[in-house]
Amino acid sequence: MKTTLDLSRAPSPGMTSLAGLSVEKLRETLIEMGLPEKQARMRASQLRRWLHHAGVQDFADMTNVSKDMRAELASRFTTKRPKIAEHKISVDGTQKWLVEFGPNVEGESVFIPNVASGTGALCVSSQVGCTLNCTFCHTGTQRLVRNLTAQEIVAQVLIARDGLGEWPADLENRKLSNIVFMGMGEPLYNLDNVAEAIDTLSDGEGLAIGRRRITVSTAGVAPEIPALGERTGAMLAISLHAVRNDLRDEIVPINRKYDLQTLFEAIKAYPGLSNAKRVTFEYVMLKGINDSLAEARDLVKLLSRIPAKVNLIPFNPWPGAIYECSDWDTIEAFADVLNRAGYSSPIRTPRGRDIFAACGQLRSESVKLSAAEKRRQTEASIAD
Domain 83-355: which CATH class? Predict the structure, then answer.
């Protein structure tokens, strides 16, 4: 009998948490509890406000909900977030959370502060592991475990806001101002959950993060790119990294399925593109691989008639990587070609390298070690 891996659902041992659910899922849950439709709709709005605007983690704090209802909710549900398996803070202020979504299912999210503005972006994961095998990316070396649910994606934001002390959601001068789907996984291979999560994140009565402050990055799942725009209104980012099909086939293997021509046709069909809604192209700088001035000029040609900016990303090393970062002078010369052609091309300052939180470095160990591997690690530790 053939068996398949269900990537859409997460294991949920124990009591179900309501934190991170969309208002529609909250309403459905309350109806299943036995509440009439009208009352369920009203209670769902109240719960959404407490859970996602106020950030409360105890039903007892929901003061405009009756005591009997609070007791009933507490007997059936919890407001807890997934378990934080590890929390690291870099010397530059970057923070990384390793979150346990289930047994041997761990994903990472990273908060990157902007020192100049006092704001910052949270880089969230949409999958545990990845199937794309981009050769410069550490996550690509980890097999796909499963998709994250919409609730699990939102939970990463709740955990970050807890850690930053940023409740209620309309707190003035809050640091967490932007969300980027640039963590583990390919978001467009989990579009249903990503779209639902963005609806919850952008809910004005809840987390209230505007859609223009949410960016979704794809390595090039061309058929889903227009659908992403239609369903979410989010900003689009493309993990590009090469301007020739032969090279992109090698370092971003999905290009073998959707080549540059197919990809750029899909990009041009993205709804609402304008100078106010530009596509961000991410380009990791690999020494001697994709960093020549000729390639910079070809990139200018490729971007013709597309409202765009280019983020140049110095390669961030990881154990076993086969690449080196381009020299700084080379990166600046590459940027100069783009700038002179009218494309903003900031060079992204590496952040969180000391805790492996920089771009391309995320990788969780969501697979049980074998007994032999555990024994070898123990023996090595004793020897040290």
Answer: alpha beta
